Amino acid sequence: MPSDDRTRAALAALAPQLAAFRSVAIGALEHARAVLAPSGGVERVRLELGALGARVDPARFASIAGGGPALDATTRERIERAQVVLESLVAASDDAFVIDVPLGASVTVAVREALAHFGRVFGLASAVDLARSGRYLPELHDRAFVAWPFELWGARERRSAPPLVVRLSGEDMSVGNLADVLDGAVHVALCVVGEAAPARLVRLITPDTFVIQAKEPQALARFSAYGGPAVAALFEADVACFTHDPARGRALWQRLSIEHQPAPPGRKRVSALTQWQQNEELQQLIALATRPTLSETPVESLVPAGDGDPVDRLATWLLGESGTSQ
């Protein structure tokens, strides 16, 4: 499947997350506009009431509550700057959420930079209130106009994180550090071009993180529906296709299924990964997905030799090891 088609499919799958983030951005912009509205004006009160305005008379509310303190020139200038940046973020097209990683560059750095760029929505939303209340510190809060890094996002912001589609070469699939930004409801879809190691995303599997490797975009349906952190990769190469879905069960073998297992990696290196390293990741994936079985080892071999029934001897030994024997 051509890369552009996979990109479109990934963007379509991420439509719910994109809509959620846009809603937060629009809310932040409307709040900035409300603060800048004429002091005591009915329109400002109407904007600040939002949906509540359908049940409350803005004019009467304004007459009771007043318009709040007037903004001084510095405060107004800061909020106006915030409004301009928020307008640009709200107006961003879906393509703005597609990130191209230059050959040889770090996918983790590219993702972090994109999150910091869109994270300005969260930083500026706070900056507006801080400026209005006189708690704005330029040395700390001016950075929100440039970038608002993931480390500064709270739990609420991480649940409204902007989704990202990342296009990269299979040679640059060094994704272990992506685990640091898989929190809240962060969704990242990777569109991988060219040869790649067969099981790169196995390193990102944790109990509550959705992880999928696939070749067909139809596989992204469950990825999109998952409410927690999720990472997906669409490949061109013959790689392992697997799904780790936390909703499937508590045990790892229940959550992890392998839909396609490729042939063992050949002697060819993929970037810095040797054949041995590639095979280690593939074998780790297979081991994680294997359902545990009962041991077939005879009971007699599990405890020291002795007289009597082996089951009785095993029970006595277990009680002794637990410290509960009399």
What is the H/E string? HHHHHEHHHHEEEHEEHEHH
- Our Rg estimate from Cα atoms comes to 27 Å
> Would you tell me the overall average pLDDT?
88
Give the helix tally.
Answer: 13
Model description:
Helix content is 43%, strand content 11%. It has 326 residues and is an alpha/beta fold. It has one domain. Helix 2 packs antiparallel against helix 3, helix 2 packs antiparallel against helix 5 (73-90) and helix 5 packs antiparallel against helix 7. The longest helix has 22 residues, at 15-36. The chain is elongated and about 95 Å long. Mean pLDDT is 88; it is low at 61-67.
Keywords summarizing the entry:
326 residues; alpha/beta; seven-stranded mixed sheet
Provide a short characterization of the protein structure.
The protein has 326 residues and is α/β, with parallel strands linked by helices.
Write the layout of secondary structure elements.
Blueprint (H helix, E strand, L loop, with lengths): L2 H11 L1 H22 L5 H8 L8 H8 L7 H18 L7 E3 L6 H12 L1 H13 L5 H4 L13 H5 L4 E6 L17 E7 L16 E5 L5 H6 L4 E5 L6 E4 L7 H4 E5 L14 H15 L20 H13 L4
Parallel strand pairs: 1-2, 2-3, 3-5, 4-5
Antiparallel strand pairs: 4-6, 6-7
